Task: inverse folding
């Protein structure tokens, strides 16, 4: 009798656990299906290649796509070397002590700061103090600070997996420390560095709160080469920002769902791609 | 040989500067939040600002009380944790203790992808699915109450549900890894003493992973407190007491929705709102440090 009561109780607990696990999967599938069902009809060639214009009667997000690419490019070009450099210092140069603890604590703190705070700081410092205003540059500089911990930490993890025998071997053969890092350590840690960079790109593409008051909401396409050179110093709304505006102040839900489809495809591709990459490198590493 | 020595020195200096940037960034952000956030505290008065409950920034005699805003943030975060954490822990138990490899990969992969979905998409779906549902409920509940201000479903409850869902991936992944780190000897001992698998999980494995789970919860609190765009889209646009069917503003949504047009003292008060949020986040960071330290000490015993 006691035993069967126990069994019922265990059964209920087990059922609850299965239910919770099923919830995550259902939620993901639900979100994907819902967004696709609502948005796929808005996505066509015109939507992806033109700019919304009342005069021409077009609805398009080409300008936002260019802005997003530009912000990703500028941010990663600056953030990757800094993040990797920081990880190299922490793993290869620093001796355990106060400075390392402080840097690691700062990196940790930085990754816990919400994006809206980065947005405020970026607006005040890069936008107003340094005078970049609402521009792609302000947005990128803000995001550099935001993704730095992500890149540093992933690189650090990768550096830790490089066996010490590589270091000793290189030094023993008479290599200088920097030469060893450049030729042996960084190439060996490359898979981890790339994974971190791709994850950072995903974070940038999905970011919105940090960009609303830094990069602004401009949606025009740059005109010609000069336009492209000037673009970083002009306001530029990313896909997420345009989606937010379409769904709230503009009330254009078809556009919002269309952008949601594009965002979802990018984000899912980035994540599945990273997974495939990690697996590929893992297999190669074991050979 | 000399040239090499110079290169070595330069390389060392450059990577050191890269590493120090993180410290500069944290100091810079903290400094800016304090410099920009304190003037309004003096102007409006600390007490009136923090404990005042009337928010009328554009009235002829403006009032800048943010107590309801603070309360909404705390309440929203608290309720989201209350709903999100049990579901997350159960999911983590599934991933660590029960799932086979194939199913585990599917559920784990789904959780990872949920973490990657941009918050504006959660907000959009909340607006389109959750809000109409809430409006329906609202109409049923307040049918005979003429004093109720209808919100169209953009309310506290919607915000809590969206937040609960958004913190799940964080809590699940941290909890799963801490459950997996529990030694198999403990499980075997418990099973050998006649405990069932479920008893083993809840009486032995979860208590052993306590500090890891706590870390996940604290991270979840930080995530919920800092989330801005998604809840700005579902929580409505009025400063109110955080009751389930009230339209509410939180610390983050207050900044998102008013920073665009605010000027003068109004803008300064919004910086103070940012400072309050920052202070909460710093407290959470400190807690995180403590929890991790406690966990590390327990582990070494």
Result:
């Amino acid at each position: 009798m006691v035993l069967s009561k126990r069994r019922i109780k265990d059964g209920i607990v087990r059922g609850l656990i299965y239910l919770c696990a099923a919830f995550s999967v259902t939620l993901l599938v639900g979100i994907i299906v819902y967004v696709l069902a609502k948005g796929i009809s808005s996505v066509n060639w015109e939507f992806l290649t033109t700019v919304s214009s009342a005069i021409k009667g077009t609805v398009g997000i080409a300008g936002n796509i260019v802005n997003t690419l530009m912000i990703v490019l500028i941010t990663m070009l600056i953030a990757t070397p800094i993040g990797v450099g920081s990880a190299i210092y922490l793993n290869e140069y620093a001796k355990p002590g106060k400075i390392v603890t402080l840097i690691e604590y700062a990196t940790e703190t930085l990754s816990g700061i919400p994006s809206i705070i980065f947005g405020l700081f970026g607006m005040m410092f890069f936008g107003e103090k340094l005078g970049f205003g609402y521009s792609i540059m302000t947005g990128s500089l803000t995001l550099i600070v935001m993704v730095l911990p992500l890149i540093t930490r992933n690189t650090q993890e990768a550096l830790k997996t490089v066996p010490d025998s590589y270091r000793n071997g290189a030094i023993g053969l008479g290599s200088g420390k920097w030469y060893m890092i450049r030729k042996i350590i960084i190439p060996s840690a490359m898979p981890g560095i790339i994974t971190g960079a791709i994850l950072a790109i995903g974070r940038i593409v999905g970011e919105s709160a940090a960009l609303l008051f830094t990069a602004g909401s401009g949606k025009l396409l740059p005109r010609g080469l000069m336009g492209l050179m000037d673009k970083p110093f002009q306001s530029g709304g990313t896909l997420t920002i345009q989606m937010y505006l379409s769904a709230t102040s503009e009330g254009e839900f078809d556009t919002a769902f269309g952008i949601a489809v594009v965002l979802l495809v990018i984000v899912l591709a980035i994540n599945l791609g990273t997974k495939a990459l990690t697996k590929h490198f893992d297999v190669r590493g074991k050979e | 040989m000399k040239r090499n020595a110079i290169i070595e020195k330069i390389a060392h200096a450059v990577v050191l500067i890269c590493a120090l940037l993180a410290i500069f960034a944290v100091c810079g952000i903290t400094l800016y939040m304090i410099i920009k956030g304190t003037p309004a505290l003096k102007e409006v008065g600390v007490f009136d600002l923090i404990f005042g409950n009337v928010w009328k920034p554009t009235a002829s005699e403006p009032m800048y009380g943010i107590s309801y805003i603070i309360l909404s943030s705390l309440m929203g975060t608290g309720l989201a944790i209350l709903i999100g954490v049990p579901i997350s822990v159960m999911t983590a138990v599934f991933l660590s203790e029960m799932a086979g490899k194939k199913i585990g990969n599917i559920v784990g992969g789904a959780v990872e992808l949920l973490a990657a979905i941009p918050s504006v998409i959660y907000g959009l779906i909340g607006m389109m699915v959750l809000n109409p549902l809430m409006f329906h409920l609202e109409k049923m509940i307040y049918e005979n109450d003429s004093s109720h201000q209808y919100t169209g479903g953009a309310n506290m409850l919607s915000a809590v549900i969206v937040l609960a869902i958004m913190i799940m991936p964080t809590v699940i992944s941290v909890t799963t890894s801490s459950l997996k780190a529990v030694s198999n000897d403990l499980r075997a001992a418990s099973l050998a003493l006649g405990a069932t698998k479920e008893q083993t999980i809840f009486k032995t494995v979860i208590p052993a992973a306590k500090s890891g789970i706590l870390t996940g919860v604290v991270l979840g609190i930080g995530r919920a407190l800092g989330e801005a765009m998604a809840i700005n889209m579902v929580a409505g646009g009025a400063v109110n007491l955080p009751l389930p069917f009230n339209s509410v503003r939180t610390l983050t949504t207050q900044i998102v929705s008013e920073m665009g047009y605010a000027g003068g003292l109004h803008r300064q008060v919004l910086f103070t709102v940012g400072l309050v949020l920052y202070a909460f986040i710093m407290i959470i960071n400190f807690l995180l440090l403590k929890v991790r330290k406690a966990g590390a000490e327990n582990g070494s015993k």
